[in-house]
Design a protein that fits this description.
Length: 420
């Protein structure tokens, strides 16, 4: 059998889909190979780099990176950050691999890979089962009375939560595709429930906010208004109970008796947020001193000096050093790429869910395309909200998943343009 570029790309794409919830090594290896095959197809003029409005934002972000790096105190490590930019070709490689195939079959492969991992994460949460990591990493996630954060096959609970938040949003949207066979809808509903529980058990506060926004987007656009109003009232009542739980000893004891309740309660305390607030204060000082160009990427020593200044000023001992980032995607991008960089990032990452919302709202109610497009919008908006409290987009595992979903979104956008 002769070698076929499309067939090879299809096989590599399958490996990528199976690896996304499981392995950074497998995800990176298959993503790199898929991108290389796409570049080869470009060189052979068998495809082209398709234009879309998101490229304007990406171009502005990269321009901000170039200017910030050129004027950095040490340009070499700043420019070295560009070796990560290969991932930005993943959406186009995914779009090329999909060709005329609907992304539904690709997402089903993701479900096939992710659903056993979500069950593993639930077992991990309750028992501490961890077959893939070292003892030191396992013990790191036993912070509250002996319970475990769900991390799945990853090494960090926010990485796991970031990936399964994205998968939950898409599965939730597809759960409302009433035009699909009942068995298929049930699959999406079960998957959405499993992914929600697994992401919840990651104990990532930013992940919880992302889950809430994803639910709000899908339910707000697909359920009758009275249902949405009822859900909002329930959410407000729950927020009121949480507020009272901090002041009422009986409620506090009830919450503390449950690991999830304990995490929710401590998440609202000033003490648990002090480190993050101090990091943001340091980031604000960096931006105040360097508002236009930032410091350039990999300026760890310069940022650490601001950490030390804040530590002295407010008498705080940081849990993290500057090399792990300021736990806020947009502030971190401003520091690394300057004002142009953060504006470009928001334009690039924001255009995709915006386009999916428009497509989803125009699609026939209950159709597969509406469910998929609204699910993509919900997933990506939830991830963007989580970015206000974390830096998950910079995690390779999460970024691979986001950019793969961008490839799905581009498929819908280009088809909509063709049919317009």
């Amino acid at each position: 059998m002769s070698w076929s570029l499309p067939r090879t790309a299809g096989l590599v794409f399958v490996l990528l889909l199976l690896s996304l919830p499981l392995s950074i090594a497998g995800g990176d290896a298959s993503a790199i190979l898929l991108v290389l095959l796409f570049l080869y197809a470009l060189a052979k003029r068998q495809t082209q780099l398709p234009w879309n409005p998101g490229l304007w934002g990406l171009g502005v972000m990269i321009l901000g990176f170039v200017l910030s790096s050129a004027f950095a105190a040490d340009p070499a490590p700043a420019f070295w950050y560009s070796h990560r930019f290969w991932r930005y070709l993943i959406p186009f490689a995914v779009l090329w691999a999909l060709a005329e195939r609907h992304p539904l079959s690709a997402f089903k492969l993701l479900l096939f890979s992710a659903m056993p991992l979500s069950l593993y994460a639930v077992a991990q949460y309750f028992t501490g089962l961890d077959l893939l990591r070292s003892g030191s990493l396992t013990s790191e996630y036993q912070p509250e009375g002996g319970i475990w954060y769900a991390v799945g096959a990853f090494s960090h609970h926010l990485t796991f939560g970031g990936v399964f938040l994205l998968l939950f949003g898409v599965a939730l949207g597809l759960s409302f595709a009433t035009s699909q066979p009942p068995g298929q809808r049930r699959l999406f509903q079960v998957a959405a429930a499993l992914f929600f529980i697994a992401a919840l058990m990651s104990h990532g506060r930013s992940i919880w906010l992302g889950l809430f926004l994803a639910i709000l987007v899908v339910f707000g656009l697909r359920l009758p208004r009275r249902w949405v109003v009822g859900l909002v009232i329930l959410a407000l009542l729950f927020a009121g109970v949480l507020w009272r739980a901090q002041e009422t000893s009986k409620l506090r004891r009830i919450f503390k008796a449950n690991p999830l309740g304990y995490r929710i309660l401590t998440a609202l305390s000033a003490k648990s947020n002090r480190d993050r607030l101090a990091m943001w204060q340091a980031a604000g000082m960096v931006i105040q001193d360097h508002p236009w160009l930032g410091l350039g990427a990999n300026a760890t020593l310069e940022v650490q000096a601001y950490y030390d200044l804040v530590a002295h000023k407010v008498n705080h001992r940081f849990q993290h050093t500057a090399d792990v980032g300021v736990h806020q995607l947009y502030l971190q991008t401003w520091i690394d790429f300057g004002l142009l960089g953060v504006v470009g990032l928001v334009l690039w990452l924001g255009w995709v869910p915006y386009a999916m919302l428009r497509i989803g709202l125009k699609a026939p109610p209950g159709s597969l395309d509406q469910g998929f497009a609204l699910g993509l919008a919900a997933a990506l908006l939830g991830s963007l909200l989580a970015g206000f409290f974390e830096n998950n987009f910079r995690d390779g595992e999460v970024q691979n998943c986001i950019l793969t979903l961008h490839g799905f979104a581009l498929w819908f956008w280009f088809r909509a343009q063709k049919n317009a």
